[in-house]
Amino acid sequence: MATVTTTCGYCGVGCRLEAHADGGRIASISPALDGPANEGHTCLKGRFAHGFTHSPDRLRTPLIREDGELRPASWEQALERIVAELERIKGEHGPDAIAGLASSRGTNEDCYAMQRLVRAAVGTNNIDNCSRVCHSPTSFGLRKSFGLSGATGSFTDIDRAEVALLLGVNPTQGHPVVGARIKQAALRGCKLITIDPRRIELADYGAIHLAPRAGTNAAVVLGLCHVIRRDGLVDEEFIAARTEGYETVAELLESCPPSAVEEITGIPAAELEAAAHLYGEAASGCLLWGLGVTEHKYGSEVVQLLCNLAMMTGKVGKPGSALLPLRGQNNVQGSSDMGALPDTYTSYRPVEDEEVAASFEAEWGVPLSRRKGLTIPQMFDAAIAGELKAMYIFGEDVAQTDPDTAHVAAALESLEFLVCQEIFENETTRFADVVLPASAFLEKEGTFTNAERRFQVVEAAVPPPGEARTDFEIIGEISRRLGHEMGWESPWEALDEIARLTPQYGGVSRERLGRRGLQWPVRADGTDSPTLYDAYFDRPGGRGHFAALPYKAPGDAADEEFQLVLVTGRVLQHYNAGTMTRRTANVDLVDRDWLEIHPDDAARLWIGDGDRVSVRSRVGRIEIEARVSERIEPGHVFTTFHFPETRTNLLVGQSSDVNTSCPEYKVIAVDVRPLSEQRSFEPALSPAG
Amino acid sequence: MSTVTVDGVEVEVDAGATLLDAARAAGRWVPTLCFDERQTPFGACRVCLVGLAGSPKPVPACTTPCREGMEIETEQPAARRVAGAVVELVLSELPERPAAETELARVAERLGVGEPRWPGAVHEGEEDLRHPYLALRHELCISCGRCVRACDEVQGAFALTATGRGFEANIAAGLDAGFEDSSCVACGACADTCPTGAITEIGLLVQSKAD
Amino acid sequence: MSQNLVELIRRHHAVQAPTALELLKEAVADHGEVTDADRVRAAELSGLPEAAVYGVSTFYDDLLAPRGRRHVRVCTGTACFAAAGETHVERIGAGLGLELGERGADGAVSLAETVCLGFCHSSPAVRDGEVVDAGAGVVDRVLAAATRAAPEPEWESLLAEPVLTRPGEWAGLRRALAELDPEALLAEVEAAAVRGRGGAGFPAGTKWRFARDAPGEEKFIVANGDEGDPGSYIDKYLMERSPELVLEGMALAGLAVGAEHGFVLCRSEYPLSKPALEAAAARARAEGLLGEGVLGTEFDFDVTVIEGAGSYVVGEETALLACIQGLRGTVSARPPFPAERGVHGMPTVVNNIETLANTPFVAARGAAAYRELSPDSETAGSKLVCFNERFARPSVYEVPFGITVRELCQEVAGGLRDGATIKAVQIGGPLGGILPASMLDTRFDFDALAAVGCMVGHGSVLAFDERTSMREVATHLLHFGADESCGKCFPCRIGLRRAHEEFAAGGPVDRERLEQLLEALELGSLCAHGSGMPAPLRSLLEHFPEELGLA
Fold it and tell me: How far is C7 from chain A (nearest CA, A)?
């Protein structure tokens, strides 16, 4: 039995795990006692859901599509085919006709290699990662208001907070170990304010729960700020010394009294006031949010409004006062940090920045485009328009997870050439021309960066199965064959290059990371940063920026035809597309997606608990099992997208965040009715036909 | 901070430290069964007794707070006699010897406790393998409470409870209809902390039966 | 105790939620047993997680035995054992055609074991529904369904002026409010050296001092009316005959400590105690002696009377607090002590009923007068003692410390009835040492009794006559001990079971193994239940070794 300490590949908490392997197979996994984020604890996914690693479904050989079917091929054949096609397309249509998609499950080194391949070997900035569809608004908003794209503190700030406000996030399901930490803090006296159209589990342990209508977050936050200002709870000193632009916000807040907020959100004025006082009067407090904030048309604005809220009461840059966006994927923070984005290099430095671009040109020895590339939604549009001809995707099942499945399918169909680098066949590989067998997190080495900006080491516990290779090797090989040798013996050398070229990660190295990792920025001498902004913000002038952003209605709304609003999300037992968890015994615990519906709505629509129903949006229709629950607010329904057969994302339209194109998964107007011959609105005695 | 003496060696300990903390800081071994550093001390097993100058009886190290100047004797004869007697009693209530890698087996070995000399009732066999990941073998439960505390103080799911009274004491999930029907979230903290393998990963159980 | 569970209970208590235990008891009262639906409902209403509710439902006697329309509970306490062995249990079981803990198929009748009903003066005793019958012919009456409430003898005081065996007049509280401030009252109680009367003998004033000094936004007084010792009915008499004295004592404690609320936990085996206390409390409120603004002052104090659910160890103070909050009645490690962290995590004074009943005299007449109540002893105050049915004049008596055990047995209780002779006497409860007849000249006092391996305990004096085999006494006591073990600490949970098996098996008892076990119990147990069990066994080993059947 050999034990390797590594970092979990599921969610953004980044539990440190001890993986025990026997004869090339994972025998069991236990939590590492000294894991900074998990301290000897973990969840059922990190601990038990590793069976997918040895699933018979694992891709063990490359596949090439011939006569419509994917057939096993050799590496040589597959790689030759890829290089030939990419070079052909580049020759005929230019490098911008090619796009890459980096996996937020992949390591920092994988993602860095991918963006280097796309930029240096192909010659375009068309590279993006899945943070596009989850926390890109967080990145945008935090950089605008504070300067850096990451949580302003650490998970341990929760232990020291007098109050914690949770907006659009359900940690006991999506970030279980952090959810447990919050629950224990709440039982010890931390007052929770939960704000969500669903009564999340933590609301049962909290002081106040507010249930706004989906899509009205901005009004809620503006309302809280209004009360804080009105009742003299602002930290005048902090505002004067550390921020700029408060006057514009103060003016805007005049028009956001609790009565107006109640109109828009449905939250009783008295409850809003109580929440504002609870947060405003506390000496320390954390703000936590998730996709319930970001996956909205104005998600990036709400993030800035949350920054306003924190700055108004000075609750940033101190122990116990942190803004903690709970990043979803194990390395969604890192994949963006590594510059797998169309508009930035590592640490969010723009591709147009001469100095930065030049530093990479010097290291890589090739000229680099200064022109921003395509985001994922733009890639799909460009594919349909015939401008994007090829995509190279690793570790992302866009056909299952991205919005408006019909649109995604059409886009993938339109491509001349699609390479998927995966561990399993999935909805996206149905469209692939070449499929490459890659490695799972327990089979690779490198680093992940968790939601508290912590670089943590990943070590391989078992080898990839069959002929599968690590993503890092594959990307390096393809780049080599495209004419750009990256020259790394191992991912650790890539990490060294990253540190060399990125001042904010300058002190990162495998040795220094050790067992506890380091939170960036990491200075050259290895000092890291558990708390940001204790003295100044990372903006020109060093001040935090107040943004005066009024409430605007979401991209979709209930109406006569579509009377309910659908919110999509996750449950504890499965992770996103369920690629990994569906191939473990977690399926014995939860084996389907279901639609949560309030008893009042269910009664009105003649829907019983367990009935199959049809759910129709402006762009699509699905069939699913309904479950009646008091936890969802009337007028809203909730479901997940863990099982491909449900095809939940058929329902999601094109509405997305105005600044980052993050899809509005959280506000979809739908019509829900029981699946039966008898339509519910037809009177019983009307003549047939 | 205060200073105490462990087996003649001075150690400095933080405020709120227990005698067990002090012993560990001094690098001295004190046997424990119901103790888990991730949880508040429980004081149930009574195996961690140590001698304390000025106290007529040995005291439980895990629940006794340090005070300036205390003198602790980790291998006080009466303390170790009682620890051994207790471990012997525990072994006597199990229908089979605990697996060698369990904490119980290792503590018994280190204390030199062999076959228990007590005939008498043993726990009845009751294996619960309904859950995909967690196996519960009631007959191996020694009511140390660690699983209940893990589910309470670490995970916060409150899915486990002690049941019954006296010798019949055991544990159960939810309304005793198995983990899946309870508020269990399968985090595995209980299996992780169980010192006898009463709660364990099904995968490991199957493996050891195969071996 | 789980801090998280206590916090959940505290939050629900703040919105007037009932405890899970209260709800489960209601279920039993309603349909004779606890179902899963009852547990789910109890969890929803009390805020306690479902699993914890399940655990509670498997702990208490009152929740375990299914009840028929007629629920018969036969007492198997030590006094009933001393009177009738197990014959009454066997005859009733045979007569009703039921095992202990069984309910008839038609749901008409059920039979259960109970310990103890507090009718030790008239053993054996049987509780038929809400009626407690006892004494000669009780078994016949039970089988004929013709039970009637057994009479209880009057209590008496040997003191020139009774202190405890008289109704309370609230003189102490009146004087305290008029003439003393809380600090002065506390000083008086400390000076009076009132020792706990429940068995531990811990100074009440010291306990009150700790609670007064402990930080906390709310404090509580808890009266321990869980007199579970078989053979003891002293607190029963106080709660039922002088409830005002008890309430006054609680109010005085509240005044001294800074508490505004008190709980009395009285055992469910004493069905008359709770009504008596509640009636007295109602009368007191009507007279402005309890409630807001006591006697027109700023002092607020009121009480809630809670009934237990059948567990001996709930008499231990941390287990008691768990029971009050609706949790399993298991013992918690100390520190933290209740004075620091008790009910809802707040500073709490837990005092025995008799202890509290002592304090009005101190408040009314002062520490010096209190200290003189036992002229022949260093110990302050007087003591209530009670005798079992074997004696000619069994009842509760108020006596001074320093009197000898022989005087108690012969002069106060009139010796044994029917010409029987005392073989041995167990004093203070089932965990008390046993004195052979030859040693009855021992003084009844803390140090004197401790010197001979005995204790004052709660003050019961229980005689075994010549018919009783000491081996059977050992077996009986160990059965009780093992059955009542809360199950938390290992020496008691497993050790008492093994000790019982050793004696019950019938063969020779391995002395060496037994001694090892006794040492583990004495030194290792978490509470006085386990650590106290060796005492009577050691007495038997010393004074009646041949009868024990040692190897």
Answer: 7
